[in-house]
Amino acid sequence: MLKDFFIVGLGSFFGGGLRFLVSKLIQTSAVFPFPFATFLVNILGCFFIGFLSGFSYSGRYLTPTIKVLLTTGFCGGFTTFSTFMNESASLMKEENYYLLILYLFGSMLVGMLAVLAGHFLSKTFA
């Protein structure tokens, strides 16, 4: 139990650090108020966790320790639901309803497609 706690923490450290770097890189390129950084990070995280989950179903590639490091730890630290909700609330406060709807539904739809694409891709390697 304590070992898994530190493994998840290590994965979260690197996932959160990478999220910070990707967000800063994308934010400097943004030209309008759509939260591209969080959107992209969450979609990439969905794809990656879908890819890892596809591998873990076969049981040949991921040990339980590596699975928890990469899924709960890294992906959990890399993606950010609280920021997603906070940015959605900001769009609502600014009465930017078109971008709010696009962000909410786009994130859910594209996120689901990314998970499925990750599953599909991992099956081609398995």
What does the model show?
With 126 residues, this protein is mainly α. It is built from 5 helices and no strands. 28% of the residues are buried. The longest helix is centred in the C-terminal third of the chain and has 29 residues, at 97-125. It has one domain (2-125). Helix 1 (2-27) runs parallel beside helix 3 (64-78), helix 2 (36-58) runs parallel beside helix 5 (97-125) and helix 4 runs antiparallel to helix 5 (97-125).
Secondary-structure map with pairings?
Blueprint: H1 2-27, H2 36-58, H3 64-78, H4 81-93, H5 97-125
Helix pairs in contact: 1-2, 1-3, 2-3, 2-5, 4-5
Tally of helical runs: 5
User: What would the average pLDDT be, to the nearest integer?
Assistant: 90
Q: What's the helix-strand series? A: HHHHH
Structural class: mainly alpha
Major sheet summary line:
none
Contiguous low-pLDDT stretches (5 residues minimum) are none
What's the helical proportion of residues?
over 70%
Shape: globular
In short:
By secondary structure, the chain is mainly α.
List keywords for this structure.
single chain; 5 helices; mainly alpha; 126 residues; 0% strand
